[in-house]
UniProtKB/TrEMBL annotation:
Name this polypeptide is given: T6SS immunity protein Tdi1 C-terminal domain-containing protein
InterPro entries found in the cross-reference section: T6SS_Tdi1_C
Sequence ranges assigned to domain T6SS immunity protein Tdi1 C-terminal in this UniProt record: 74-137
Pfam assignment, any one: T6SS_Tdi1_C
Domain of life per record: Bacteria
Length: 156
């Protein structure tokens, strides 16, 4: 596995706006450094590089900023899981390529029982995925495990 194959070029988006829905979780001084093919964001905060995990709604220290991300991922036994490499490979094999500024997303969030399968994947703009997941996790963060959640999707 070459970890850099699963990192996207940092898009020229309004990062302040994209991360606004995550203010309840993120430190105030963080800035984006890398984005994965599923939209998870590595953020610099002080001397640390943290990972904003969009599916789980978590932010945690990943490594120090002096460590090259490719080296940190290469040393991480769980990098295949973190980067969804198997799923990304399956998507690439069927021609589901990402265009600039887009990432994969789960149609049904995995936290709600969505499966890690190709049929549950679509693409979205990176900023919209970040905003949607932040808003979603902010709304459910205080719910007890097993609570019922109903999603209503609308156009527009």
């Amino acid at each position: 596995m070459n970890p850099s194959d699963y990192l996207l070029p940092l898009p020229a988006i309004d990062w302040h706006s994209a991360l606004a829905e995550w203010r309840w979780l993120l430190p105030p001084d963080c800035s984006p450094r890398h984005v994965t093919s599923f939209g998870d964001v590595f953020l610099v905060s002080g001397i640390d590089l943290g990972l904003l995990d969009l599916e789980n709604g978590t932010f945690y220290r990943y490594c120090d900023i002096q460590t090259a991300i490719a080296d940190a991922l290469a040393d991480d036994a769980d990098a295949d899981v973190l980067l969804y490499t198997k799923l990304a490979g399956e998507l690439a094999a069927i021609g589901c390529d990402l265009t600039a500024g887009r990432c994969y997303h789960f149609k049904i969030p995995t936290i709600l029982g969505g499966e890690f399968v190709v049929s549950n994947i679509a693409t979205n703009t990176i900023d919209e995925r970040i905003r949607f997941c932040g808003d979603f996790h902010r709304q459910i963060k205080d719910l007890p495990d097993g609570a019922s959640v109903r999603l209503k999707f609308t156009d527009g």
